[in-house]
Every structure is written in C-alpha cells, then in structure tokens.
C-alpha cells in the first residue's frame, strides 16, 4: 500500500505531467530554433526588409507565439521547482510564485502586443 | 524496554558546508542549469522582447536598442545571456539524451557534463571575441 500523500498547496502536480511538459516544451523551442536558423540561412542573413516581412507573415507570428507559450510554460515549471527547493516558508514561497506568475503573464501580454499590435 | 529507550533518530554527523564539499562536474552543471534558467527568466526574456519590439517599431527605436546593447554594459549583459542560453540548451539536450538512456553510466555522464561546461564557455568566448 502507498502511504498517505500530503499534497502541498504550494507544491507541484504529483506525477509525471510536469516532467513531460518540461521536455515537450524544450523540444518545441529546439524545433523553433532550427526553423529560425533555417530561415536566416535561406535568406542569406537578416536584412531589415526580410526581418519586417517575416513578422508581417501570419504563420510566422503564430509559430513564434507557440514558441513563446512553450518558453513561458517551461519557465514556470523551472521557476517553481527552484522555489520549491529554496523558498521553504509557505508564505514566502507563495508570494514568490505569485510574482513569477505575474511576470510570465506580463511577458505573454508583451508577446501578443509585439506580434499582433499595430506598432 | 531497552528498544523503547533507543532514540528513533540517531545523532549522526552532518557535514554540509557547500564551500568545502568538492562537487562532481554533473552537480556543477546542474546548479548552473538552474542559475542560467533564472537569469533567462529575469533578464533574457525581457531583453529579447524589448529588442524585437524595438527592431520592428521603427528604425530610430532599433538604432536606440542596438546602441544600448552594444554599449560597454550592454555587451556584458549580452555575454551573460549568451552563456545562459548556451549552457541551458546544452545541459537540456544532455538531459533529453539521459532520458532516452544515452550516456547513463557514470563515466559517460561525467564526460558529457564536462563537454557541456566547456563547450558553453567556448561558445561564450567566441561571442565575446565577436562583440569586442
């Protein structure tokens, strides 16, 4: 028999989910990096017109958004693991987790603004 | 009676002076994986978004951002971020390989850890040469 599991409100999911997410998001980021390097090589470097037209391309915006989503999810799992190891008092850990979530949410907003804003 | 008198937790010597314990290479790249990850969250992502944002906004804002990043302090920040990316990605790839049971034995694991440490530093050095 498995003993009682004491789940912490400031803990992680209890299972392989986060382990899997951390690796899946890493692979998404690696794939995007390969794609980006491929685009740069294909265009023989990055001139300003190429750069502008790249971000005007709807498909590239969506793929870039997927990259940032993977990056932010990956960042959350990693940051939480670090906080679970070093921020021991529950109040401190919870406070820092809220700070991290707010920060990552701000990055997500900035990403959307950058990709689809009319700047 | 005799068994009940015995304390459940025996007092054992604890020696956890992190500065005196000699860490194996895999432990060193593991803690650096964390350090680089935290650096990327706090500095890397905002610098990336800020720079791409500026580059797309207008030639003037791009010139401003470029000037800031190529200043003396900007280059130091870029170099720290370059190391963070190299180390984090290489250590991450090593993790993925370990996950599919490649290089799990002690000797190969130590060797791959040393490779991660050294290659990340060499790539950073190449960036430094390119920047200055």
Main structural class of chain B? mainly alpha
> For the residues shown, what is the average pLDDT of chain B?
92
Shape of chain B: elongated
Spell out the CATH superfamily of chain B.
Fumarate reductase/succinate dehydrogenase, transmembrane subunit
Task: Give structural notes.
The complex is a heterodimer of chains A (119) and B (132). Chain A has 119 residues and is mostly helical. Helix content of chain A is 76%, strand content 0%. Chain A has a single domain (17-116), classed as Fumarate reductase/succinate dehydrogenase, transmembrane subunit (3 helical TM bundles of succinate and fumarate reductases, Up-down Bundle), CATH 1.20.1300. Chain A has helices spanning 17-42, 48-56, 58-86, 90-116. The termini of chain A are far apart. In chain B, helix 2 (25-57) crosses helix 4. Chain B has one domain (25-131): Up-down Bundle (3 helical TM bundles of succinate and fumarate reductases), CATH 1.20.1300.10. By secondary structure, chain B is mainly α. Chain A binds chain B through residues 23, 26-27, 30, 48, 51-52, 55, 71-72, 75, 78-79, 82, 100, 103-104, 107, 110-111, 113-114, 119, and chain B through 34, 37-38, 40-41, 45-46, 49, 52-53, 55-57, 59, 89, 92-93, 95-96, 99.
């Amino acid at each position: 028999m498995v003993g009682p599991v004491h789940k912490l409100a400031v803990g992680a999911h209890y299972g392989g989910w986060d382990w899997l997410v951390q690796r899946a998001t890493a692979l998404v980021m690696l794939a995007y990096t390969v794609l980006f390097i491929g685009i740069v090589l294909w265009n023989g470097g990055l001139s300003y017109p190429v750069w502008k037209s790249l971000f005007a391309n709807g498909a590239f915006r969506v793929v870039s958004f997927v990259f940032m989503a993977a990056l932010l999810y990956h960042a959350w799992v990693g940051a939480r693991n670090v906080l679970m190891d070093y921020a021991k008092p529950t109040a401190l850990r919870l406070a820092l987790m809220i700070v991290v979530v707010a920060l990552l949410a701000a990055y997500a907003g900035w990403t959307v603004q950058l990709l689809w804003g009319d700047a | 009676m005799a068994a009940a008198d015995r304390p459940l937790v025996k007092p054992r010597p604890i020696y956890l002076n992190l500065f005196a314990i000699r860490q194996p290479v895999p432990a060193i790249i593991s803690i650096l994986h964390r350090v680089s990850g935290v650096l990327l969250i706090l500095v890397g992502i905002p610098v990336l978004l800020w720079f791409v944002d500026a580059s797309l906004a207008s030639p003037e804002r791009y010139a401003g951002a470029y000037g800031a990043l190529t200043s003396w302090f900007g280059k130091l920040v870029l170099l720290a971020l370059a190391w963070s990316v190299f180390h984090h990605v290489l250590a991450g790839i090593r993790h993925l390989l370990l996950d599919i049971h490649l290089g799990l034995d002690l000797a190969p694991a130590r060797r791959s850890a040393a490779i991660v440490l050294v290659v990340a530093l060499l790539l950073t050095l190449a960036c430094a040469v390119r920047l200055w």
